Amino acid sequence: MNAGMNLESAPHGMPTGYAGQAATKPPNWHGYVVLDALLNNLSTGLFLVAGIAELVRPAAFSGLARVAYPIALLFLIGDLVCLVLDLGDPLRFHHMLRVWKPNSPMSLGTWCLTAYAAFLTGLTLVSLWPDSGGGLEWLRRLLILLGLVPAAGAAVYKGVLFSTTAQPGWRDARWLGGYFSCSALGAGTGQLLLLAILTGRPEATAALRLALFLILVLLLVALVLLLAELRESLSRVHRAGYLAIIGAVTIFVGVLLPLGLLALGAPRALVAAVLLAIAGAGAVRYEIVRLPHLLVEASGRREPLARAKS
Amino acid sequence: MPGLGASFGRGAATNYQQDLAHSDCVLFMGSNMAEAHPVAFRWPMKAKSQGATLIHVDPRFTRTSALCDVYVGIRSGSDIAFLGGLVNYVLTHDRWFKEYVLHYTNAATIVKEGFRDTEDLDGLFSGYHGNGRTGHYHAMEGGWGYAGSPGSEPEVGGDGSPIYQMHRQALGMHGHSLDAGPKAHPGQRQSMTICQEADPPWDPTLGHPHCVFQILKRHFARYTPEMVSEVCGCTPEELVRVAELLCSNSGRERTSAVVYALGWTQHTTGVQMIRTAAILQLLLGNMGRPGGGIMAMRGHSTIQGSTDIATLYDSLPGYLPQPTADEAHERLQSYVEQEAHCSGYWANFREFIVSLLKAWYGDAATSENDFGFSWIPRPDGDYSHLPYFVRMLNDGVKGYLLFGQNPAGGSPNARLHRAALRKLDWLVVADWFQIESSVFWKDDPQGPPPSDIKTEVFFLPAAAAQEKDGSLTNTQRMLQWHDKALDPLGDSRSDAWYLYNLGKRLKQLYAGSTDPRDQPLLNLTWDYEFDEPPRLPDGSLSRIEGEPDIEKVLMEINGYRLDQMDPRTSRPRLLSGFSELKDDGTTACGCWIYSGVYPEPGRNRARDRKRTANPIQPDWGYAWPHNRRILYNRASADPEGRPWSDRKKLVWWDAAQRRWIGPDEPDFEPEKPPDYRPPAGAMGMDAIAGDHPFIMKPDGVGWLFAPGSIRDGPLPTHYEPVESPVENLIYPDQSTNPTVRFFEGSLNRVDHTPTSTYPVVATTYRLTEHYLSGPMSRFNSWLNELQPEMFVELSPELAAERGIEHGGWLTVESARGRIEARAMVTRRLRPRRIEGQIVHQIGLPFHWAFAGEVVGANANDLTSLVADPNVSMHEVKAFACQVYPGRRDGAEPKPTVPPAPWPTRERTPDTPDAAQPEGLFRAPGGEAER
Amino acid sequence: MTISEKAVTARPAGRDSEAPRVGPSLLERVVGPFRRGEPPEPRQATGFYTDTTVCIGCKACEVACKQWNQLPADGFEWTGNSYDNTGELSATSWRHVKFVEQLGGDGTEVAHPDRWLMMSDVCKHCVAAPCQHACPTGAIIHNEFGNVYIQPDICNGCAYCIAACPFGVITRATLDGHAHKCTLCYDRQRDGLVPACAKACPTESIQFGPIEELRERARQRVEVLHQRGVNDAYLYGDVPGASYSELNSFYLLVDRPSVYGLPEEPFNPWLAMKGDYVRAVLALLVSIAVLLAALFLQGR
Ligand SMILES: Nc1nc2c(c(=O)[nH]1)N[C@H]1C(S)=C(S)[C@@H](COP(=O)(O)OP(=O)(O)OC[C@H]3O[C@@H](n4cnc5c(=O)[nH]c(N)nc54)[C@H](O)[C@@H]3O)O[C@H]1N2
Ligand SMILES: Nc1nc2c(c(=O)[nH]1)N[C@H]1C(S)=C(S)[C@@H](COP(=O)(O)OP(=O)(O)OC[C@H]3O[C@@H](n4cnc5c(=O)[nH]c(N)nc54)[C@H](O)[C@@H]3O)O[C@H]1N2
Ligand code: SF4
Ligand code: SF4
Ligand code: SF4
Ligand code: SF4
Ligand code: SF4
Ligand SMILES: [Mo]
Questions:
Q1: Is C48 helix (H, G, I), strand (E, B) or coil?
Q2: Over 90: is that where the pLDDT of B179 sits?
Q3: Is the pLDDT of residue B186 over 60?
Q4: Which of B169, B378, B584, C187 is deepest in the core (most CB within 10 A)?
Q5: pLDDT interval class at B160 (50, 70, 90)
Q6: What is the mean pLDDT of residues B535-560?
Q7: Structure confidence at residue B547 (pLDDT)
Q8: pLDDT at C281 over 60
């Protein structure tokens, strides 16, 4: 009952009209999109880092990379499943490919993901080929090179898609894209670091540990910039206590703690650092995706589909 | 609408809706036009866009108020005080239209010495018999007549006493009531205006203490701005502002219109509210002129038509009084003598009634048998709606045919109505839906179990307007024909089909009977068969058998010249208009005022839809009488026949052609010059002078003072509603209308004024989104979603006082019952300071009841059954109640039908995808075209 | 009480039958969307000018829209927000009449005489429409009349347009998962008819026509209102703003936009997109640089 009015703001909760209510409607983006935002970065990040590492230091990394690509592919598949299922009409996913609209982040992103998926699949197949060390090496190199561009695009577009909307919160988050691409690289580095540890590659581990450390520092900057932009919106929908928790989880657990653990350097610490960093990234995405929904509710208007539309 | 009938001669809106666009100022009072007549409201909006001022006076700030320049809030039932204040202002500030008032009203006429005003008798007029709460006036005794009119005469008719028919005619106009036989008002059987002799004595200086003008001045002297503000709860400044606006927008160059509806009529003083407006408009000289007049915004489609054609028990078609079980009405001759005027148009009375009898009884009606006059049934009492249901409640009625009405939901004190229906042996309901009145025996949450109800209910599915031919007469007396577009669904049939075939079977049943009492039925002309099988617009044959040819009914209503054959049809020639009527049985006419609507074969003027350069649009539909769009339009010219002003010219005397000309049909004898003066002893229209525009009146002028034609007094007086928390400030000794009729009983308690048990004033009204008691809207999801639930509007002050939360529940209780609804707390309602005390007012829409897709509490379970003396009108616009927070009974009626499904999920056959309705959403994964 | 999914999709016996509808072939579904017809010749741009000062809140526009487009009711919910029980624009309500009570009394004073503002809201048919920029399937187009139209056979329900619209016009219908909104009666316009809502409007609050004529008429109306002392009258969306294009469905208002639930200054998100890309790419490159640095520095 009482949709469209907010009882407190007038004597006896008289009709209050529309002033102060968010004019926008939040999109129907929920869990799938949180997952997608994470899987996208895990996959693209892992591929980018593994690819670059293999290209610049084949000796140290190609072995590791071969293990990484299939994993990136698995994450990518998971991501695509989320994307399709999130559509109102999943059987029409391919309609995305009717048009090439770089002006629409979602169109650009879809094309990037598609191209990336194609190269990554090829790459994975070739990599799994018995003795691809020999004659097929050039092909692998080529596929990596080709894959890097769309992968980068796929990593970059996500945040820009969110910030290129009319949604309260998102629309003020100029650094959302920056945070996401940075976080993608971080997630990639972290995953590769894990693999290096698990497969016992001290040399790679050392390099990746340093890389992750430095990227996390960058990420800290991006995150702080982002939270600064979102602080006002967040504080409108969350009590101080919860804001503190968000800060703690995203900044401390997601970045500072990992940094510390990385500094420690013990393998267990490194593993923990990576997992925490990824958890932190997940938390950020969760808060971001639900932000406009909360803001609209808080503004006194209820979500459109909460009413029995059709 | 006797208020208008008594003042001007015809009880119908004087102008047409589109004419409101020509007004310089419009006063909406007792009408919520933007909500109840939204489409017509475009015309006042046009006026506004051209700079006119719109004023709304209403207890609530409504969607109409929102669009008006000035809004004044008053307490329900205080309108006569407000209007009286306006009249008083016009008189005391000398703002009345001298020339107009002098020539076109009875201001100068001198009234009998014996007349005593409420001023002299503390709120009563002379001639009262009763206990102050209920009773009647003996108008003759009270001397309500013009000086010089005949004094008391024996109780036989014989004198062509105009007053009586004017009284009747006035009633006929809105119909409803003819009190328990004429005997109840012997006084009104006498003549009150001059007849046969010369004009009544009059004083052009208006100085004579007993001339109407002086009586008027004295009568309204009490209605000062201060007094008005005390009674109505507005400020004195607000009254003065409205008065000033009306005065400055009236006169030669400018005209103001008054628009009213139920906010006036639905009171025990409603007729007098309208009378006050009539007096105001006459004084300001706004009658009979473009952009002026009084618009009664009527209700149901063709409610005007149903009064014209006399669905009302006390009048015959064309407002001829229904003959009653009373010796004066036994023979045609004495009936005519009694009912005809000697002067004015009603002098042709005999032509109207004889032609009607010929239309009904055809060849069986001869001069020898009084044209079958004796076959017309004679009511012996009040058979109007409310008293009828009281009779039903007292087991006075066995069976009932209910066509197109929902008394179980929409009638005042609906609970009483339901109880009455339960007393019937059988009930036939012809309707579109299973309404409260057809499911009361099983779905009424307050009713006894079905097993305890003996009433047998038969339901006849009724066809909708689109499924039948016919005409609708709208609020401006305009007939508009509609052609059948398609056959009715399944077993449903038009109302005409049911009645026509019922009639045919009854005639068969009584065929050959010689019993005199069967003759009316056997002699009835009943021949409306189609000449060839009817077709639908697409040319295909209609599926329906036995449908009567309604156009033939319209031809009968228009009338025939029986002694002349039309070669084209080899049928009697159709009449060109009522001027052709004869009283010797050579003409037949089913309703004289409609005569002319079908002037020749194949020319149904109600079907006309031609736009012309003429702003009056005379070729769009057909308005009675004689396609005149503005009544009394002779008054749009000055006494010499010249337009009052170029800006407001309508009909004027063309000396060259020696006739009245102009865009509208003159509502006057077209060739009677302005300077015509009736010779002594002139009769009929000859008795009307060339400068007397109100031709339906025996003296040809508008009646500021109504000599006896209205049952509760010749002048309007403010009385409180029968249920009011406050006393009558204006006449402390007489709080309510002394002639109201009550039907008190356990089911119909009235808590008489002043009530302290029920201190809150309640009123009921409409919302744009719903229609009446709801059958025509509460079965429609598109409307229900717009106003899904019953609510009550109340002010924040009252809410705070009673601890009622906006959006929460509240309980409203009256002497009749208790309902629960959602609280709409809004400043659109205001507490009012009345006589120094704060009086709260609440508002209840009356659209909800227990049958339909959405259901809810029924405001009419609170309203009472009382009757004003003139038209037996109830008082649902002002009654007393008490409000509590929360719910008491928690009774929750369940919808009787499920919500409508998605309008259509099926693709329209043989239609390209691009042309399918956009709302026909394709199922997920649906096809892709283009 | 609200209509349940079931109630809405269920058909009563006798009415339209439950005939199983054979969907198009798989192939058709796959290739269909890629087929392109000839785009129709551009026509004179049309739109709406809504003069809220003459709206009587009769909701005829809402009903006419639902009737013409055969849209379902949204459920029977009494909101208590004045006479507005529609609540908002949505996939199944393409017109929404808003009611704003501005009456003084018990303490609160209002600057103007008591008012009850009414306004029939609808898609603004933005000249530069964020929803159209956003649409990744190309379902949203500016049709030959310059109106923003969602091709119902193309939309796949990604909901980006919903997120992009600054006016909260679009939602996704649960029934088909597609986005829907006012079509500006594209079908009627092609047949030379006035949109259903404008046709139904008794007071000409909704005026339809060639957009330039409408803008001219609207400006004159504002003039007149100012002369009559209605000084707060102004046009919303008749000309491009600093951060938003002009609207092909624009309004005459007498109070701040937010009072009517409209954004004070609509902002086209695409103005910020390039910058956001730059930051995102920058962040990526810097991260990569850092990565490379680490790869070279460590363990050589
Ligand atoms: N949408 C819609 N339109 C309708 C109808 C409908 O049901 N729905 N019904 C049709 C019918 S049958 C009719 S008769 C007409 C009726 O048309 P209206 O008479 O205009 O409609 P109401 O709402 O009954 O009453 C009008 C106004 O009278 C006010 N009022 C109440 N008491 C008083 C009073 O004592 N004095 C004054 N001055 N005002 C008072 C009410 O607040 C209300 O705003 O509408 C017709 N049109
Ligand atoms: N409290 C309160 N009560 C009021 C009023 C008020 O203002 N306040 N207003 C009063 C007024 S003005 C009026 S007019 C009455 C109206 O009261 P009613 O005359 O009872 O009007 P409805 O409730 O609409 O019932 C009309 C019925 O006719 C049916 N119908 C429609 N068309 C046809 C047809 O062609 N043929 C047949 N056979 N049936 C048809 C409809 O389905 C509906 O069931 O209500 C009165 N009651
Ligand atoms: S319902 Fe009919 S009569 Fe009433 S306003 Fe609409 S068009 Fe006029
Ligand atoms: S108002 Fe919203 S939906 Fe309409 S065109 Fe503009 S952006 Fe698109
Ligand atoms: S939901 Fe449909 S219309 Fe909206 S952007 Fe996605 S594909 Fe385009
Ligand atoms: S233009 Fe057509 S679709 Fe748009 S609101 Fe009006 S009626 Fe509905
Ligand atoms: S139809 Fe016109 S007047 Fe009625 S609500 Fe819609 S816009 Fe306002
Ligand atoms: Mo009515």
A1: strand
A2: no
A3: no
A4: B169
A5: very low
A6: 96
A7: 97
A8: yes
Averaged pLDDT, B642-650: 97
State the closest ligand 6 atom to the C-alpha of C208, by its place in the atom list counted from 1. 1
With CA atoms as reference, report the closest residue to A231 among A162, A172, A165: A172
Question: What's the pLDDT band for B904 if we cut at 50, 70, 90?
Answer: low
User: Which ipTM value was assigned to this complex?
Assistant: 0.93
Question: Are the C-beta atoms of B23 and B52 separated by less than 8 Å?
Answer: yes
Average pLDDT, chain B: 91
Residues ≥6 apart with Cβ < 8 Å to B411: B385, B386, B389, B417, B860
Torsion-angle region of C38 (φ positive above 0: left; ψ -120 to 50: alpha; else: beta)? beta
Q: How confident is the model at residue B178 (pLDDT cuts 50, 70, 90)?
A: very low
Q: Is C191 helix (H, G, I), strand (E, B) or coil?
A: coil
User: Is the per-residue pLDDT at A301 higher than 80?
Assistant: no
Query: Would you call B66 an interface residue with chain C, using a CB distance cutoff of 8 Å?
Result: yes
Q: CA B321 → CA B1, B178, B338, B373, B872, distances in Å?
A: 14, 10, 11, 13, 16
CB-based contacts of B13: which residues, under 8 Å, 6+ apart?
Answer: B4, B293, B294, B295, B296, B297, B298, B475, B476, B477
Any ligand 7 atom below 6 A from CB of C58: yes
Q: Which helix (H) or strand (E) holds C109?
A: none
Instruction: Give the pLDDT confidence score for residue A262 in this predicted structure.
Output: 96
| Cβ–Cβ pairs < 8 A, chains B and C | 202
Measure B58 CA to ligand 1 centroid, in angstroms.
Answer: 10
Nearest CA to ligand 6 atom 3: C182
Closest CA to A119 of A97, A152, A91, A90: A152
DSSP bridge pairs for B136? B129
Residue type, B93: H
A218: nearest CB among C34, C155, C290: C290
How does pLDDT run across B353-408, given as a tens digit for each residue?
Answer: 999 999 999 999 999 999 999 999 999 888 999 999 999 999 999 999 999 999 99
Q: How confident is the model at residue B923 (pLDDT cuts 50, 70, 90)?
A: low
Give the residue on A whose Cα is nearest the Cα of B801: A12
Q: Do A105 and C273 touch (CB under 8 A)?
A: yes
Task: Retrieve residue C255's tokens.
Answer: 């109070």
Residues B796, A7: C-beta atoms closer than 8 Å: no
CA of B300 to the centre of ligand 8 (A): 6
Ligand 8 center from residue B176 Cα (angstroms):
13
Question: How is residue A90 written in tokens?
Answer: 């999943």
Residue spans of alpha helices (H) in B428-518: 436-443, 495-510
Strands (E), B30-157: 53-57, 70-72, 128-130, 135-137
Distance CA A87, CA A94 (A): 11
Q: Return the residue whose CA atom lies nearest to atom 7 of ligand 6.
A: C65
Question: B863 CB under 6 A from ligand 2?
Answer: yes
* Residue C100 to chain B, least CA–CA distance (Å): 11
CA-to-CA separations, B363 to B79, B318, B320, B555, B690, in angstroms, rounded: 52, 22, 22, 17, 40
Among B149, B157, B100, which residue's Cα sits nearest to residue B285?
A: B100
Structure confidence at residue B209 (pLDDT): 96
Window 874-913 of B, Cβ < 8 Å to C: 895, 898-906, 913
pLDDT score recorded for residue B188:
31
CA distance C237 to chain B (A): 23
pLDDT tens digits, A218-230: 999 999 999 999 9
Residues with CB under 6 A from ligand 3: B 37-39
How open is the CA angle A76-A78-A80, to the nearest 5 degrees?
A: 70
Q: Whose CA is nearest to atom 35 of ligand 1?
A: B76
**Residue B187 pLDDT > 60:** no
> Among B777, B779, B729, B773, which Cα is nearest to B753's?
B729
Taking CA atoms, B600 is separated from B225, B559, B566, B622, in Å, by 57, 10, 9, 14
